[in-house]
Every structure is written in structure tokens, then in C-alpha cells.
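Q&A log
Question type: sequence-to-structure
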Amino acid sequence: MTDPLQHYHQQLRCSAAQIDTAFWRNPTGVTIPDDELAFLLVPDAAHAMAVTEVAYDVNRFQQEAGPDNAITAALIATMGGMLPGILLHDHLVHGRPAGSARMAFGSIGVSLYKGPNERYEQPRVQQAASINIAGENVLVIDDLGDRGGTLAFLHDHLVQHHARRVMTLALYMKPQALAACPVDFHFGEVEQHTWIITPRELVETLAKRVPVWRERGADQAECRRRLVELIGYPAAVADRYLPPVFSAS
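Response status: OK
Response body:
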């Protein structure tokens, strides 16, 4: 039987043809010494696969929804939703099934997190919706539902700004988010304590977590071991950014 950590590392390095879709639907994060969080790095190939799977579900909905219920506008929630949102644009606009409703894409800036496990008291709207959503059936796109606060906030915010209907999409959902704000579309689920590292936030997570590890007694070599050997960071990324982050913390 394959060791779970070994299988995880195989998946980090495998080709697109070798991606284990079932594994990425319910992945288990890597445990780190003296850290309450587990960490899961989602590589580009797995991330693109997850987006493709969700896009199929949305396009299927569009075919079956009818003119009154079909999604007519999509808002990418920045920053988290930007990478999946850009990939989804390709599938949902250029890959739109014949005869289904056209979907306008825009963005909305909202923030709930300062860093891993560090939250603002209330979500912050940093940029209003960039397209008109009044009277539209709107799809909100984000990368992760943690406790459901951001998605629930955006749902209510857009309803207050006269969206006809608001639907939600996140690649991954955690139990608290599923209970608080069930999404209409998602790819996978992870445990509540798991921090997902998407392709857009390798450096950000390193910069936020290494100071915590150092404060709890880890030296630079141990931080590198956690990043590369456990979490699966590319060695080049760790070697470029770890020394200055460690020195500054």
C-alpha cells in the first residue's frame, strides 16, 4: 500500500495524465512539527484539473437552466479567485455550450484574511463590482471556502446591490464553510485545519509561516526541510525566499 505522504509527493511532480482526481477531491494536508495547521500544496496541473472539472459542472448547469435561471454575470473575488477565475473564463466564455446564455466576467475586491489563520473581524470590500450586476444572475468565484464568511458576505452584498440571483463557486471547501454557506459548485473538500497553498501563494505562505516556525524554535535548516521535504515546495523557491524571510523574522 502506498504511503499517503509518498503518494502526495508523487502527485506534486506527476504529469497531467497521471493526476489522481479522487486524491485531489479529498486530500489530506501535511502535518508540521509544532504547528496547529496542516499544509497542502496544490500544483499547477492539479489546480488546472480541478478548474476544468468545476467548469464542466457550470457549463452543464447553463445548458439545463433555461433563460430565466442561467448565470449571466461572473465576479472573480480578488485575490483568491483570480487564478481559478481566469482559467474559468476560458472554459465558460470560449467553451460555452451552443445555445447557452453568455456570461459577462468582472471582479470584486474583498479581503477576510491578513495571512494563514489571521482574519479581519469583518470582510473588507476593497473594490466594487467592475461590471453591472443589477438584475443579473451572478456567479461569485473564489478559491476556498474556509468558514464561509467571505462567500456569505459577498452573497448578501450583491443581493443588496440588486443582483437578481447569486450563486457561488469555490474550488475547495472546509466543513465550517459548507455548514455556514453551502456553495453551488465546488471541486473538493479538506479538513478545517488544512491550509491550502495554491500556485499563486507559494511565496506568501512561506513569508507568513516561516516567522511562526522560527518563533517556535525551528532553525533555517528545519524550515527548509518542512517546506521542501514535507510540504513539497520546489527547492529553488525555498532557497530563493527562505533566507531573507528567516533573517528578517
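Response note: Strands lie at 30-31, 38-41, 73-78, 104-115, 118-127, 137-145, 165-173, 185-189, 194-197.
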